[in-house]
Amino acid sequence: SYGMPAFRLNGKLIAGFKAAANHCSFHPMSGDTVATLKADLSGYETSKGTIKFSARAGLPATLVRKLVNARIAER
To answer: Across the chain, which distance is largest between two alpha carbons, in Å?
Structure first.
């Protein structure tokens, strides 16, 4: 979806991800998720619906769980 691998739950997009030359990005498919978890995302470059991170550092599993759970709760 949107030209990137993505996960669906009951047919609705939950999250996607992609890699670029200088970073990777996680897309919660909602601007509300990034705003809701703004404090948890303070160490990352964000925009309304994107969280950028380095491929070397990755995203901590606990943060990914929080992002996915927040996204599911929005539905």
So the answer is: 33
